[in-house]
Design a protein that fits this description.
The protein is of the alpha/beta class and about 270 residues long. The protein has 7 helices and 7 strands; from the N terminus they run βαβαβαβαβαβαβα. α2 links the parallel β2 and β3. α4 runs parallel beside α5. The radius of gyration is 19 Å and the shape is globular.
Length: about 270
């Protein structure tokens, strides 16, 4: 998909951060309609107002990605309004940094529910309709560099879940490519977003809102600056979209260590069978 003009996009987690940046970038590219969805309805309305200033029609949706019914309603509303959806960004994400041994079960359940099950719920709601539409479609899942390497950042729950997201994206791409739906896995590095205080809107079933927040995600590059790199990756239909070149050395070190141990395994197999 080389041209975003006239297209319809749906973005979850669009109330702020990367989701808002995606919505505004597509608006500037001439998208026809942008559906902005988030659990924070007030923030979503603000995003929609900014999108409309750039020209496109914007549809506001209060949506909880952890709830399959909510995502089914979102898909039904988007298709009722526009007839087709060409770009789907399962982007909603949360984090609650802590050492793994200190993470409570509610933390695990919440991060899994939003970051992994939220992607699955979004895909399950939209893909059947995408398969039935005339024009092509592209799904761009927001994963993370934390999904392709492990860093000592006391954020193990998020890292474990993002690894699952990356695996899901890869299988989904292989399954949907023959059906004419592209899938890309976006693995950004650090961006200045509100993910550190995502618990302010945490659902009751996962412990309810928290006022104490983390500055995780607050000191990095603004997501708006990353959007040209992201959209170019979509145009080129890359399996992985990497937008932060400064993360390459860490990735190389991570996989170099892995292959060192693989080579050690080869030597052991040769020596003892």
């Amino acid at each position: 998909m080389e041209d975003f003009a006239g297209r319809v996009a749906v973005i979850t987690g669009a109330g702020s951060g990367a989701g808002r940046a995606i919505a505004l970038a597509l608006a500037r590219e001439g998208a026809h309609g942008v559906v902005v969805a988030d659990i924070d309805e007030a923030a979503t309305r603000e995003t929609a107002s900014l999108v409309r200033l750039a020209g496109p029609h914007a549809l506001v949706a209060h949506a909880d990605v952890a709830d399959q019914g909510s995502m089914d309603d979102l898909a039904a509303r988007a298709y009722r309004e526009y007839g087709e959806v060409h770009l789907l960004f399962p982007n909603a994400g949360v984090a609650k940094p802590s050492p793994l041994v200190d993470a409570e079960r509610a933390d695990w359940d919440w991060v899994f529910a939003v970051n992994l099950h939220g992607v699955v719920n979004t895909v399950q709601a939209f893909v059947p309709r995408m398969l039935a539409q005339e024009r092509d479609a592209h799904i761009v899942v927001t994963a993370s560099m934390s999904g392709v390497l492990v860093r000592r950042n006391r954020n193990g729950v998020y890292t474990a879940v993002k690894h699952a997201v990356v695996a899901y994206c890869n299988v989904l791409r292989d399954e949907l490519e023959p059906e004419g739906i592209a899938v890309s896995c976006w693995c950004p590095g650090g961006m200045a977003t509100r993910i550190g205080d995502a618990a302010r809107v945490r659902q009751e079933e996962y412990g309810g809102p928290l006022t104490a927040t983390s500055n995780f995600g607050g000191d990095w590059e603004p997501p708006d600056a990353v959007m040209p790199r992201l959209l170019q990756g979509v145009r080129e239909n890359r399996r992985y979209i990497f937008t932060h070149p400064e993360t390459r050395p860490a990735l190389e070190r991570y996989y170099a260590e892995m292959f060192e141990d693989f080579d050690a395994g080869d030597r052991t197999a040769g020596e003892i069978g």
